[in-house]
């Protein structure tokens, strides 16, 4: 803190008749402290944001690699692959009106679909199931058919799409 004399209204600016003293606060050290604190907070907040970002990325990776609804989901990163035409296949067609068709035969109920999957698995464990679902079919029905095939042991599942 600096000490000085108050200037009077007349006469010399630096002299005072009554000798009154005024105090002047030097704010330079205070400003330095605030700037240092600002820098510290900026560094700490950047580190905290990076830690949260890393945590969110780890959670997203765990969700992608975890099993969802009994099916392991590996999202494709490239173009679609052709299915093996020489392998034994079951073609399951799911039209929007509801009747499931397997290899051009209409299925009466869901238990019959389980029996078809079981018999195909006992004949050949590498049987591939090609699901041809209409675009208007609910996602849950397609997933239900896939879960039935997987429950029996059929792991080679494919979803047919229209070309182009």
From TrEMBL:
Keyword Magnesium: no
Keyword set, alphabetical order: Cell membrane, Membrane, Protein transport, Transmembrane, Transmembrane helix, Transport
Top-rank lineage group of the source organism: Bacteria
GO biological process: protein transport
GO cellular component annotations of the record: plasma membrane
GO molecular function, one term: transmembrane transporter activity
Transmembrane spans: 33-49
Location in the cell: Cell membrane
Pfam families: ExbD
Membrane topology: Single-pass membrane protein; Single-pass type II membrane protein
Similarity-based family: Belongs to the ExbD/TolR family.
Name this polypeptide is given: Biopolymer transport protein ExbD/TolR
Species whose genome carries this gene: Haliangium ochraceum (strain DSM 14365 / JCM 11303 / SMP-2)
Lineage of origin: Bacteria, Pseudomonadati, Myxococcota, Polyangia, Haliangiales
């Amino acid at each position: 803190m600096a000490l000085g004399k108050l200037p009077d209204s007349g006469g010399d600016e630096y002299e005072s008749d009554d000798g009154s003293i005024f105090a002047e606060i030097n704010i330079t050290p205070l400003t330095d402290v605030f700037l240092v604190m600002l820098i510290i907070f900026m560094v700490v907040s950047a580190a905290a944001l990076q830690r949260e970002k890393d945590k969110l990325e780890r959670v997203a990776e765990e969700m992608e690699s975890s099993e969802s609804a009994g099916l392991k989901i590996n999202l494709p990163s490239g173009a679609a692959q052709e299915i093996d035409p020489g392998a034994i296949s079951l073609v399951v067609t799911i039209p929007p009106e509801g009747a499931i068709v397997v290899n051009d035969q209409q299925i009466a109920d869901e238990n019959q679909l389980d029996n078809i999957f079981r018999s195909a698995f006992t004949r050949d464990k590498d049987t591939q199931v090609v699901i041809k679902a209409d675009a208007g079919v609910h996602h849950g029905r397609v997933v239900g058919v896939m879960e039935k095939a997987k429950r029996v042991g059929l792991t080679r599942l494919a979803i047919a799409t229209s070309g182009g």
